[in-house]
């Protein structure tokens, strides 16, 4: 029940009580059509404007619907053309929203982490921080779409073996800087659990026990990711294989550092259940890793656990941070080198002012 509530919360994408007339806005794609929805005060007139850049000045916004009062507007937009939507109220208030999921063929779970409201009422900027699953199957025709995002740096959180088995293939010109560290994936906890037989309950318990260890195995990767974000040299993408576990922890750390409430962080994390599906077919795994062979032998109900996420997995990470450090800010400074000055810079860079 809690997971369903989190998914429902995340599907709203943006919500702000500070915006007097418009709230709970979302953008959803069906083919080449975008549907913008929002909630507004009774009979409130809202202008819908679009731009092709998240930082477009007011003069570059194109009005596509004037005095809209039904809380819904559709417009044509090819998947290769990403639009950023501005909703403008009668008093000039604005609320920005965009597609949460990027329709890049060959990449699962590719998401923009922008739009979320922080505890102090600001919102995470769209178009500057992205997360995804592996990038080894990007369709060649997606070069223009990826290029339009302006991604400057990619942090590959995968192990040496994963990268060798499925190397990143970024199409087109404008190749980003790819940062990665060599390490071997420690699956001993899962192997031990499998030794005595595995079921859904045991699988979930194993995952919950595995997650806190990501803080140690990926300390240097997370530190490097935050340093890249602080450098503010352009949009950043980070990913692992499924874009849900290591990437989910990284996103939890980033959003929490920016001041996004825990409930919203967990809701974003839960979206991987909607946007990722493990492909265990022989055609998709011509050179399967030991882990993929292991997963392929599991019962369907256990595979479902392994391809999904549960709130308690990420909560276990935050509980471990509190247990070790007594608070998230202490962890940021001690483990990731993000002290008060760096945190202030991070918020100034990635939050709408």
UniProtKB/TrEMBL annotation:
GO molecular function ontology, one term from the record: phosphoprotein phosphatase activity
The keyword Magnesium appears for this protein: no
Domain Tyrosine specific protein phosphatases residue range list: 220-280
Record Pfam families: Y_phosphatase3 (PF13350)
Alphabetical list of SUPFAM superfamilies matching this protein: (Phosphotyrosine protein) phosphatases II
Signal peptide: 1-20
Family per record: Belongs to the protein-tyrosine phosphatase family.
Protein name per UniProt: Protein-tyrosine-phosphatase
């Amino acid at each position: 029940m809690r997971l369903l509530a989190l998914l429902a919360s995340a599907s709203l994408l943006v919500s702000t009580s500070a915006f007097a007339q418009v709230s709970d806005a979302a953008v959803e794609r069906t083919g080449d059509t975008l549907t913008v929805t929002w909630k507004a005060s009774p009979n409130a007139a809202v202008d819908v404007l679009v731009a092709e850049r998240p930082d477009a000045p007011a003069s570059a916004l194109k009005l596509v619907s004037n005095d809209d009062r039904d809380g819904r507007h559709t417009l044509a937009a090819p998947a290769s053309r990403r639009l950023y939507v501005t909703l403008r109220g009668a008093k000039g208030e604005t609320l920005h929203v965009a597609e949460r999921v990027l329709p890049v063929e060959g990449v699962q779970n590719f998401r923009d982490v922008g739009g979320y409201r922080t505890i102090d009422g600001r919102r995470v900027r769209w178009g500057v921080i992205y997360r995804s699953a592996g990038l080894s199957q990007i369709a060649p025709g997606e070069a223009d779409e990826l290029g339009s995002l302006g991604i400057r740096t990619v942090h590959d959180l995968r192990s040496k073996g994963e990268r060798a088995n499925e190397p990143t293939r970024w199409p087109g010109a404008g190749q980003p800087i790819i940062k990665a560290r060599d390490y071997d994936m420690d699956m001993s906890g899962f192997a031990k659990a499998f030794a005595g037989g595995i079921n859904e309950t045991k699988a979930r318990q194993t995952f919950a026990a595995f997650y806190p260890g990501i803080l140690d195995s990926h300390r240097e990767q997370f530190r490097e990711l935050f340093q890249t974000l602080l450098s503010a040299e352009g949009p950043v993408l980070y990913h692992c294989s499924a874009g849900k576990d290591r990437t989910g922890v990284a996103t939890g750390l980033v959003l929490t550092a920016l001041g996004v409430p825990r409930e919203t962080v967990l809701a974003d994390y839960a979206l991987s259940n909607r946007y990722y599906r493990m492909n265990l077919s022989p055609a998709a795994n011509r050179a399967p890793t030991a882990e993929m062979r292991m997963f392929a032998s599991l019962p369907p109900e256990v595979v479902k656990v392994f391809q999904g996420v549960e709130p308690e997995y990420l909560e276990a990470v935050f509980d471990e941070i509190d247990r070790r450090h007594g608070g998230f800010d202490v962890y940021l400074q001690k483990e990731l080198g993000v002290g008060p000055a760096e945190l202030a810079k991070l918020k100034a860079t990635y939050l709408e002012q």
